């Protein structure tokens, strides 16, 4: 355990590039000798603190991102399908309640990120694959149920996720991301030889691998490893 | 010749990510079965037409880019060293005259991009490695001399690069880039089965390789191939 390099993945389910980064890192968790730590945060807070603007506000960038996400989703084998109204889903509805819910899942399951992983994936699937809401309690219940959580657990989470404790937890994780000079998500922080190396986005995996002394085998390492 | 896939690389020597893209594509030109076409354009015109803002204006992004370029420069083996005052070099001084000069080199050497490649590399080396000017005629002469151009050729280029013909040529190439929905550089346009696929930046080589039916072997393919 102590010899494994720690890699923190800061993410928000409103961010499609975070989904790509999340799936790739979950696949590599057992391929590379790393201790992957999932860090749910609120992208809106990071954008505000850093003064960054969403890339989709530049029309050519928005068009490119649509193509880029389609190509990357296919190549990475992640079922990315943008919501019919991305601006409504991402900016008007947003992800504050969803990420508070994920933070509550993490708080309730200290010591294991397994449920955080499963619930986050179901939330991404809702917004970035099935064009479904992620803001209403009913939506959170559905996602948690699909993730395999029990009725009792979900009831408890619904009481927790609007509490001051969980709001503060998400806020403090988000501030921690900002402390790493974040200006967007996903953000990966590698702890190597007492130093921290930050990587932004879902297009620095090869460089990240190089930095932690591992090898990039493409977005589907187990399939690739099987081929060797 | 006709069976080779055409890949156009739109670049500006003011852009460090363009330099990475340029060196990688020049290395892959003989590894992949492609016809690489160098397309000198003016980044300032693309930013204005697309309404995009330079990423370095967000402080956290600027700090990240500095680290990112250092890491990428080392990993890609490109001697990237930011100028002491990047804002002065990139925005106040800019690259309009340098890119007109490169456009003149291309106009004078139709049919071969070899001199375009050599002169562009010397210009990048000046601004992005040695913190030297690229706006004055004396700077262009020095770069062209290092690139191996003769005194006679350089004299002719100095007469050409401020002509209406060359100004219009750079303008029309820049408009062509905007027509591909560009919002920054480098931009790669692959012509595959009668269709065009556009890739932005220096972090989609693996996806680009997949798209043209080739394999990504890392930023130094010949070394990597030698290892196999």
UniProtKB/TrEMBL annotation, chains A, B:
InterPro entries: DSBA-like_thioredoxin_dom, GST_Kappa/NadH, GSTK, HCCAis_GSTk, Thioredoxin-like_sf. Pfam families: DSBA. One of its GO terms (molecular function) is glutathione transferase activity. Gene3D superfamilies: Glutaredoxin. It catalyses: RX + glutathione = an S-substituted glutathione + a halide anion + H(+). Its EC number is 2.5.1.18. Belongs to the GST superfamily. Kappa family. This is Glutathione S-transferase kappa. It comes from Gouania willdenowi. The lineage of its organism: Eukaryota, Metazoa, Chordata, Craniata, Vertebrata.
